[in-house]
Amino acid sequence: ATQVDSALVVNATGTSTLDDVRLEASGTGYSNRGLELQNGTVIVRVGESAASGGTFGYGILFFGGTAQVFDSTLDGSTYAIYNFGNPGTADVAGSELTTGVIGTVTCAGVYDGAFTFYASTCP
What is the 3-state secondary structure (H, E, C) of the chain? Predict the structure, then answer.
């Protein structure tokens, strides 16, 4: 069996709001995800989503849904955000993405792990 560790999995309709939260997943298995989004809308304000260890680590892994991230840190040992097959909508503003992104992600005023500023693109 493939081991997957997710700090939080969202697979619901409607909107969930996360304020001042830290989501952290780490392990030695196949894949770790701070936030795994399958459906619905998640708004994250002043938070951190981190994943490390294992073969893959994603701050946020999208299988669908919508995420709006503000003033947060997204830290994945592989990718800060992975919009798997681009089924989801990822909007990130005023946040730090310690690693890069893959798939369709809209960034505004974000920083990378070296605190390089990106006004209208993703690192």
Answer: CCCEEEEEEEEEEEEEEEECCEEEEECCCCEEEEEEEEEEEEEEECCEEEEECCCEEEEEEECCCEEEEECCEEEECCEEEEECCCCCEEEEECCEECCCEECCCEEECEEECCCCEECCCCC
